[in-house]
Sequence to fold (145 residues):
Amino acid sequence: MTRKLWLAGLLALVAAASLTYTLVNRANRDSAVFYGESHHWTARMELTFFTVGNATWVDRKMVLAYKDAAGEPRPDMIRWSYEMIGHSAAGTMPLNSEGLLQVSSMGNQYGAHLLRAPDTTMTIQVTVEWLGRKETLELTPHPPR
Fold:
């Protein structure tokens, strides 16, 4: 029951964030894509910055993909985390049927040390734990495809 309520709350939050994003003036946007790989994983994070009034908002979209390895079991649940300038996040989620985990978050940026536009000199540290294993990926700026 608690899990269903948590999932319903998460879905409501995602819907509210999507609505907010849709209402924003898309002319005031700037984005950057970061990419990294490890032995078992690839990760891609897109950061999109936009302005609403005097506030700068950032939309973060991360996709983790499991690289299937011969003879190795596919993980059901994984623990993930990432750290970047002014923000970090973590969670435990299942992979979808395609071996992907998609994480999206949006928030406004306050303070002198937070990003107000994509910083193409920074890296993003992503850590993945599954089946007693742990790998860290360093995401670096990548040209959009």
About this structure: The longest helix spans residues 2-23.
